[in-house]
Amino acid sequence: MKFQSTKILEGYSTTFRQWKAESHCKYLHGYSLRFKVIFQGDLDERGWVVDFGSFKKIKQKMKELFDHTTIVALDDPRLWDFQNLAYHDLMQLRTMKDVGCEKFAEVVFNMIQSEFDHQERVKVVSVECFENNTNSAIYKR
Length: 141
Fold this sequence. Notes:
Blueprint (H helix, E strand, L loop, with lengths): L2 E14 L12 E13 L14 H11 L2 E5 L5 H9 L5 E4 L4 H16 L5 E9 L5 E5 L1
Parallel strand pairs: 1-3, 3-4
Antiparallel strand pairs: 1-2, 2-5, 5-6
């Protein structure tokens, strides 16, 4: 496999907290998350690694998970409080085993790779999650 292509998925206003942090990251804070996905594969009959027009389903999943949501770890000791806020329709709560850019990159990597599992010629190489212009985390195969 000699070719790579890149897809940027951005504009996901997400709030989260990392309750185990000793820094200010233990508080709710938010970013407009951006993801950079690198694909690798042989070219198809059109000369493409990936058809960028085929991302409708992926974009919908990303929107449901990250857009105007609050993400909290399943083991957060205040999970009940967040669930109560969601119950009263004050937030869109999402839970994950772990929270942070590293875990968001891993979740997106697995989500996108599962959409391409039927295509043996294309693999996701990495997903980079940016919380701003200076901080990011990468999950690789």
